[in-house]
Amino acid sequence: MDMDKIKRTERVIVMTRVLSGMPNRIIPYGRFCEMFDLAKSSVSEDVAMIQKAVRDWNLGEVETVTGAAGGVRFRPRLADGEALAFVETLCEKLNAPERMLPGGYLYLSDLLADPELVRKIGIILAGPYYNQGVDFVLTMETKGIPVATMTAVALNVPLVIARRASKVYEGSAVNINFPDGKGGIETMSLARRAAQNGQRALIVDDFMRHGGTARGMISLMAEFGVSVAGLAFVLAQEAEAPLSELQEHPLMLFTENSTKDALVVRPAPWLEQA
């Protein structure tokens, strides 16, 4: 009897590790049946145990998917209220006077270099898009890459990086010119093999003020025949009107305080609603 308990404990640990190591991927029950030489009914009982523990401890969500391509998948999420509390802490850090940089920017590099912070940011930004059929995450080099990577990890999709200029080692590329939102023109390049017609992309970036880069990425996706599921930013300027008709999920919003020559940062409203 004790041996059976140990075996089940080991099974549950291994299954949990497999699920968390491949977030948002449907893993067929048959895989676990083969791994442990078990009947599907026994695997289902183990999954139910994992499902309850993950739910009770607010570790995310474990879903069972029915049908021919069914199985079980793990989706990382922060506990209720944890995401908002985490973002409020980020806002406190960003509202420090020493964060202000010349030209009306905030120093974000240290935060975007912290793996644990960026992991949580990626999980939060991925949350609204788990059921949106996203095929890949698109970002612009270079500061947005860490956050886009963690968002892609949570969604379990590839990361695609648009560049300022095409690279010879990426083969032929599509190049577009786009308004930068400040009266200038910039260039954006993406390898032809990076995206395919009919796919669906999530655009992720670290900072959005005038929206020129975001609009450029939307236009770039149109060149590839790729639809855009939405836009996700770490920090975006609060505006009277949305950037586009696409859904937007900034983590934080900022307004300019002209009297103090500073930016005031606050959590985005959708986090409170979530």
Instruction: Spell the H/E element sequence.
Output: HHHEEHEEHHEHEEEEHEEEH
Number of domains: 2
- Specify Rg, calculated over alpha carbons: 21 Å
The chain-level structural class is: alpha/beta
Shape: globular
Task: List the total number of helices.
Answer: 9
| Structure summary, number of beta strands | 12
The CATH class of the largest domain is identified as Alpha Beta
Beta-strand content estimate: 25-35%
The CATH architecture of the largest domain is: 3-Layer(aba) Sandwich
For the largest beta sheet, what order do the strands appear in spatially? Answer: 6-5-9-10-11-12
Q: How helical, in percent, are the residues? A: 25-40%
CATH topology-level name of the largest domain: Rossmann fold
Mean pLDDT: 92
**Which regions are unreliable across 5 or more consecutive residues at pLDDT < 50?**
none
Q: What's a concise summary of this model?
A:
The chain has helices at about 1-20, 30-35, 40-55, 80-95, 110, 115-125, 145-155, 210-225, 270-274, and strands at about 60-65, 70-75, 100, 105, 135-140, 160, 175-180, 185-190, 200-210, 225-235, 250-255, 260-265. The chain has about 270 residues and is an alpha/beta fold. The strands form 4 sheets. A 6-stranded mixed sheet has the order 6-5-9-10-11-12, sandwiched between helices.
Q: Would you mind describing this structure in some detail?
A:
By secondary structure, this protein is α/β, with parallel strands linked by helices. It folds into 2 domains: 2-75, Arc Repressor Mutant, subunit A, CATH 1.10.10; 82-273, Rossmann fold. The protein is built from 9 helices and 12 strands. The protein has helices spanning 2-21, 29-36, 40-56, 82-94, 109-112, 115-126, 145-155, 212-224, 269-273; strands spanning 61-65, 71-75, 100-101, 105-106, 136-140, 159-162, 173-179, 185-191, 200-208, 227-237, 248-257, 262-267. A 6-stranded mixed sheet has the order 6-5-9-10-11-12, sandwiched between helices. Strands 1-2 form a two-stranded antiparallel sheet. A two-stranded antiparallel sheet has the order 3-4. β3 and β4 form a beta hairpin. α1 crosses α3 and α6 (115-126) packs across α7 (145-155).
